[in-house]
Amino acid sequence: MKYTNSLLTVAVVLLTSIMSAQEIIPETEVAQNTPTQTGKRQKIDGIVATVGDYIVLDSDIDKTLLELSAQGASVKDISRCQLLGKLLEDKLYAHQAIQDSIVVSDAQVNDKVNYQMTYMVEQLGTMDKVIKYFKKDNEEDLRTDLFEILKQNALTEEMQRKIVDEVEITPEEVRTFFKSIPKDELPVFGAEMEVAQIVVNPKVTQEEKQAVIDRLKGFKKEIEEGASFFSKAVLYSQDPGSRSNGGYYKMTRKTPFVKEFKDVAFSLSEGEISEPFETDFGFHIIYVEKIRGQELDLRHILLTPRISEESLNEARERITAIKKRIDDKEITFAEAARTLSDEKETRANGGTLINPKTQDTRFELTKMDPVLYGQVSNLKQNEVSNPIVDEDPSGKKSFKLMMVTNRYDEHTADYSLDYIRIKNLALKEKQIKRIGEWSEEKIKETYIKINGEYRDCAFANNWLKK
Description:
By secondary structure, the protein is α+β, with helices and mostly antiparallel strands. It has helices at residues 5-20, 58-70, 80-99, 106-124, 127-133, 139-165, 171-179, 206-224, 229-236, 259-265, 309-327, 333-340, 344-347, 370-376, 419-445; strands at 33-35, 41-43, 47-51, 54-57, 188-189, 192-200, 248-251, 277-279, 282-292, 295-303, 362-364, 388-391, 397-408, 411-412, 448-450.
């Protein structure tokens, strides 16, 4: 029987984690060299390290190697000591998250378990095959182990986020960072471009809007009567960023969501489901799962109304007319973007796009989104493209005009020209330093024991507390 690559990766990850998501067991159960029937001695799996309330087994290292190989990574230069060091870091994060009272709700983890189980059944065909594949006695045992795995992973992620979120950087620190780099070691940035766009969205009829609103109201009623919000989101939400995770987002008032979404989210009580409401993305309902001060755990379902062929044709004619006005010098591209574009995010600054990875206006050609690169790569500077039909992952169509407003050749980093990128590099260095300081501090405070041959490892962190 053949399995997909994605299932193999899931299987390896789960098998690796299932072995390590255990409570501490007595040291007497550490691996021993035991005689076999042939008279030879065979190494039995056992504990190689303990970090707080977590253990690492020798087989965890083997399975991590297998996981990396399954993902296409080269493992020939990776030592078992390095892999153990990474596993120890993950356990330290999870352990400290518990000490810091970071909460990952059981409901949130159970939703992830349900999604993962559903996915695996879809891939293998039946629950019995899934249980056999993961070498478990029954579904309950598999769910129990999977719950512990996903909870530990969530705790690790939350702890890492907490450490990094506390780090900020000042302009003076950025300047000092830049000056500390020797001239012959300054980074070289590849060829870049700045891009602007004008967007025309097809109009949605009131009848189509009402149909979506009624459907969301139906979902809300069913959920209030006992249906799973998670399942509804997985099956019906048109938000590709959260659909597979049951519509889940964690957010604060600083999270870069549209204002309408944040206003509704922060108006709800814990356990409450909103009425349908509209944003530029479509219509939503929100369920607030947990409130922690100014932070929310929420789920949402997004539906976008159907666009008629008549509306599509009207939008196509409108974008064509805008291009003609620009070509005839009746209006500049920037003026047209400010007054005629339907995209609020870029309208105010003449249609200029912001690189989501750097928060700068420049895009490095070798790192551009392939779709965007395909739309602009053949344009000369200040040349306006023909109308482009654009379709987002949810299936929503729009029409665009694109223009390359500036091109930059490959160059050595310049403080004034590349400030945003230099700031990001400086921040990353400060975050890494903070993580190192945090790890050093917590290693001293935490019960850690390394067993057997691994005590001879030259770890990057002071796991042996020498």
